[in-house]
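Q: Sequence in, structure out?
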Amino acid sequence: MLSVAPAALATPAITGVERTVDAGRRGWYGQAMKTQIDHLVVVAKTLELGVQWCEATLGVTPGPVAEHAPSGTHSRLFKIASPANPLAYLEIIAINPDAKRPANAPSKRWFDMDDAALQAAVAKAPQLVHFVANTSDIQVARNALKAQGIDLGPVVHDKRHSRRGVLQWQITVREDGQRLFNGALPSLIQWGKPDAAEPLRLHPRNSLPRSGVTLQSITITHPTAVKLQAAFEAIGLTGIAVETGPANITATLHTPKGLVALQSHGI
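A: Exactly. Output:
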């Protein structure tokens, strides 16, 4: 069950810092690959219950419904960007019971949404289960992880209509739908077409209004913290504290209800 508790004031983690990586992991035009937090993923049994949870827990109402036809899901978003996490938003996502999935859709939905343990957890209350990292070169980042024996799955191209135009992106999705490291290793996303000159022009943060909620930090504990930290370094993701311990993601948010910590508890 989702643990929601007032968080103690703490110094935010250092984020948004571009790491210098070796030439084998360079993205656009030979520049150092940059990876940063894109969005948090909260799974709910139904989207309506997710909205109720959001209003009661964080004191805000998320944005309009976005449909994801291939996965048979729908979601609602709201901005949680801060100076340290300038792209960040929160996605509340649920299985859409009315969706008609295409015949060529993957057999499993992303983010372990078909997993029995996850479904049992979110039946009690919406749950923070994962986060997604934006990277400047998704193929290079994916290959950097494969070199460490970590397979995030193929890069899937997707799109949906938004008020500002057609929103396109590439995202890593395993064929079994699984998250890795109990959700603590982010899926990778690259916005825009592969050759887009301005890939972040239609990023959701540009059309979402300020919500009054900002992401202060993400901290992670995991039994294999050393391997997880090495994976973060391989893709140039900084500013996330990783320690050895029971699997858990803690996202600390400043909200109209004060500081709130959302935890995954290893689901």
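The radius of gyration is 17 Å.
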